Amino acid sequence: MLDEGARSSLLRFRQNLEQDIKPAYLMDHMISDGVLSGEEEERISEWPSRKEQAASLLELLLKKDNSAFISFYNALVKEAYYDLANLLHAALPGDTPNSSNSTSDVQIVLSAGGVPQRPVVFVSRPELINKIREKLYHLRQDTGWVTVFGMAGSGKSVLVAEAVRDQRLIEECFPGGIHWLSIGQLDKANLLVKIQALCFRLEQSLDSQSLQRPPTSLDEAKERLRFLVLRRYPRSLLILDDIWDSTVLKSFDIHCRILLSTRNRSLTDSVSGAKHEVEVESGLDDNKALEIIALYTRNALECLPEEARSIVRECKGSPLVVSLIGALLKEKPDRWSYYLRQLQQKQFKRIRKSSSYDYDALDQAMAASIEVLPDEHRELYRDLAVLEPDIKIPAKVLSILWDLEPEEVEDILEEFVNKSLLFVDSHRKPALYYLHDLQLDFLVEQNRAQLEVRIEVRL
Hints:
- The chain is an alpha/beta fold.
- The protein has three domains: 4-91, Death Domain, Fas; 103-280, 3-Layer(aba) Sandwich (Rossmann fold); 286-457, Orthogonal Bundle (Arc Repressor Mutant, subunit A), CATH 1.10.10.
- It has 23 helices and eight strands.
- A five-stranded parallel beta sheet has the order 2-3-4-1-5, sandwiched between helices. The chain has a three-stranded antiparallel beta sheet with strand order 6-8-7.
- Helix 14 (246-249) links the parallel strand 3 and strand 4.
- Helix 3 (23-32) packs across helix 6.
- GO terms for molecular function: ADP binding.
- It comes from Hippocampus comes (Tiger tail seahorse).
């Protein structure tokens, strides 16, 4: 139920909000937080004008709870509606993260810091969650970095959000609050906007009488953030989700406590401080994957059709693929055989579903990892399509394939491993390298598609 103060604030400033906001941008954030459904978004978007959409969104907010109000506030901040967010700040439900009893309600603390809520369909992975919490306890007494890394679609962001959803952890390690920032592939201008939003959120929580002007450069933003974190939030945790570029991290190298999720384990080589890491190496086991599909399709495990286990095997443990298939089956419950065929035939482009994940389909998520490689290394990576499933090979084999010196091959393979594009069994001497089944399937399909294009061009 919505607090009376929050309700009054929405009603009081309704005209200001209707006049200025673009609901489409705000609703994306609210869907990611799990406080707005796809059906509700479609219903709001059907209104012909932006102002009518805004009015519809506010009307819906008045019927929701405190979490929805906090999500709306955070969306305003993320989209740089600072003046409007300032109007609503005093009405935020619950305590601010730096108050003495802030940990009495973990969800309020996390929501205020922009941490995504638990997905509607959620299956716990306690071993990995506990590993992340164990590393976070290393930041209890001193600053440093915890890196959670793994291949595309392995569920890193969900695991990170779940790991900090723990009252004891917040009380003992991060009484200054937890602040989440979704990064992705950003240029300098958009990175500045992200840090401006974070600084605004931190300043608002201090109940400042007057807002400072937003920092106008990355250097100024870094210094503003350094002051806020070290002087006002000295025992807080900053979560940087989906980091791609080591240069981005330099803007946050301010001697604080940071948890980051990434596909590239070597990113923190460029920054100072203690470093800890957790690898999200493997995906879900069959039972966990079946549980996800059962939740999506609202079936008991024992009532799933016989195609379910075959679908799970074809998903190769990827939480992303399992979730995409589950969401599709929720809408089309008669298509079990059809989606099984698409998986068996490696039709990745057809396995897509709008979601809060950055990529709608598996082929997009896999391709994004490859595109960040240098051109010459990208072609070498595609050559790995010649590998056989479940076979591990030494660097010497690839030295022959690529006609390169063994030392140069080892450096290239290290880059692939660091970017979660390849795995290494370092317990063997020499070390052996291998691809995840999904990565191999994707490379084979991509090479086949390129070959077909070449043939068509020649014809």
